[in-house]
């Protein structure tokens, strides 16, 4: 169990370096001999490099060079590349949180959350290359969580159930974002959306996949659904899937609400 008697200083000191930097709970470095840098300036330069050439292209020396400083100048502000990546991750999660609106239901708000998640992956494809090493700890990522919890504030469920819903929705958004990122990468390299969907392999798959070996996949392939050979009646697979996820949440929440109402009526 956590030590409730830890001092505030001890508690904050236990945070990773990049997290402390994101909250501004580190001492500001003294002015260097070539002029003043800033952490936002360093992070912005690193994001520009990652957007252009990927996360692996980000290094302290390249970021310093892009700013016209030496690597040692950067280390006075950000002590490691890991800390810099943590700051980059938090920076691109700094999105405007929409205000509460009485005319917008929770399902539409969750859709908006997922679309914002997908947009992050679309605009910053390297985001998915960051290893998840802990729960969110930085201010902007926590604001996104706070947004989702606000959406669920009237749900008749406990906090653990809310966190599970949050993980479910966030994971779906992440998966959709990664799919869109990979398709965009293929198109940028000269491919096409049809190629991503495997349309050009339809004839070959029909030769290879036989009903005796793939009894359940075979009819799906032959219907044209597997490679998009025929028009999709549900139009957008990702939106369709999200609606089914929301249906499941709604069914669970309504069942919990009905059970609570029944218990209150019986008292």
UniProtKB/TrEMBL annotation:
Source species: Paenibacillus nanensis
GO MF: DNA-binding transcription factor activity; transcription cis-regulatory region binding
Entry keyword Transcription: yes
Gene3D superfamilies: Homeodomain-like, Tetracycline Repressor, domain 2
Regions recorded as binding DNA: 59-78
Domain HTH tetR-type: 36-96
Biological processes annotated in GO: negative regulation of DNA-templated transcription
Protein name per Swiss-Prot or TrEMBL: TetR/AcrR family transcriptional regulator
């Amino acid at each position: 169990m956590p030590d409730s008697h830890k001092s505030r200083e001890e508690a904050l000191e236990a945070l990773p370096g990049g997290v402390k930097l994101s909250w501004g709970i580190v001492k500001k470095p003294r002015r260097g001999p070539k002029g003043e840098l800033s952490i936002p300036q360093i992070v912005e330069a690193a994001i520009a490099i990652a957007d252009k050439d990927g996360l692996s292209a980000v290094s302290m020396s390249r970021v310093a060079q892009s700013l016209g400083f030496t690597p040692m100048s950067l280390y006075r502000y950000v002590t490691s590349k890991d800390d810099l990546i943590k700051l980059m991750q938090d920076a691109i999660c700094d999105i405007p949180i929409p205000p509460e609106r009485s005319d917008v239901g929770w399902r539409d708000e969750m859709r908006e959350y997922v679309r914002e998640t997908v947009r992050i992956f679309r605009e910053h494809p390297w985001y998915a290359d960051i290893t998840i090493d802990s729960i969110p700890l930085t201010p902007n990522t926590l604001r996104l969580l706070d947004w989702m919890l606000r959406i669920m504030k009237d749900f008749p469920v406990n906090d653990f159930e809310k966190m599970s819903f949050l993980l479910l929705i966030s994971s779906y958004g992440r998966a959709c974002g990664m799919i869109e990122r990979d398709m965009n990468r293929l198109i940028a390299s000269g491919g096409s959306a049809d190629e991503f969907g495997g349309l050009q392999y339809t004839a070959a798959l029909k030769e290879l996949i036989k009903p005796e070996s793939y009894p359940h996949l075979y009819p799906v392939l032959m219907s044209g659904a597997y490679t998009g050979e025929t028009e999709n009646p549900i139009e957008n697979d990702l939106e369709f899937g999200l609606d089914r996820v929301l249906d499941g949440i709604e069914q669970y929440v309504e069942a919990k609400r009905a059970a609570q109402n029944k218990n209150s009526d019986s008292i």
